[in-house]
Amino acid sequence: MPQSTVWSIHPSLARKSLLNDYSLEIPVSKVSSFHPPPEIFVKGSEVYLPHLSQKDTAGLKDACKKIVALGYQPVPHVGARHFADEAQLREHLTAARDGGARRLLVIAGDRDDSQGPYIDAMSVLSHAMVSDLGFAHVSVSGHPEGHSRINGDQLLDALEDKLEMLAVRGIQASITTQFGFDAATYVRWINMLRERDIDTPINIGVAGVTSIPSLIKYAALCGVGPSLSALRKRSGAMVGLLKGYEPTELVNELSQTLTLNDKAPVKLHFFPFGGARKTFDWITARSGTPK
Known about the structure:
Mean pLDDT: 84
Number of helices: 13
CATH architecture: Alpha-Beta Barrel
Strand order of the largest sheet: 1-2-3-4-5-6-7-8
Helix content: 40-55%
CATH class: Alpha Beta
Number of domains: 1
Largest sheet: 8 strands, parallel, barrel
Distance between the termini: 45 Å
Strand content: 15-25%
Radius of gyration: 18 Å
Shape: globular
Order of helices and strands: HEEHHEHEHHEHEHEHHHHEH
Structural class: alpha/beta
């Protein structure tokens, strides 16, 4: 694959781009109260729906319908290890399809053991069911900080295998990362992908506005390692704990160091642990858009 042309842009333009075109995720159980402001979360943007258990499958169809009715694109998570058998996988994918979803995020899942035959994302991606049910775009996970049980080369090889599988099936692909707090780690990882001629669009995980204790709890659960240590150092003072976390510093650093191009866009993907409203208010303040 020929290497794409990449150019730097002025930091102010990068900030504007990063906050004008982004995605976020909310629990299936919170969709009924989800009312995003269209002036800062443009119609057609992606809303990811986590899959933590089969309870999320039960409400998935209605959640997707609500997202579609609001003018956005639902992107249900598909956690491979949560499915006990093929019937459960089909139930989940059918609920997503019937709710209007045409995009998925396929991941291994947040459990160490598998409830059934699907042990990783590849075991779902290799199933014809994904394309047979009409899903045209699939995002796969990226690990800028590495993985506790898989070395870096194996991670990259696995990522390339997943992207190749999607290409063979004629499905568009993107990469969505876990959230983190260290811009330099993200940039090094993105550059490493581009050096391997991986020009797939990337959604960079960013934690939204929330309390520091909550953020540290989620980071520990999600295996966010090196940058969690950096966050703990920055938030050690009591004033930091009282003020809470905002992603201002991270977004500023990303804006100043990222290079963007049309062929392989890099966007933000927000994890609004403190609630979507707080993160939308932060974006409003940053963009200068009236509430």
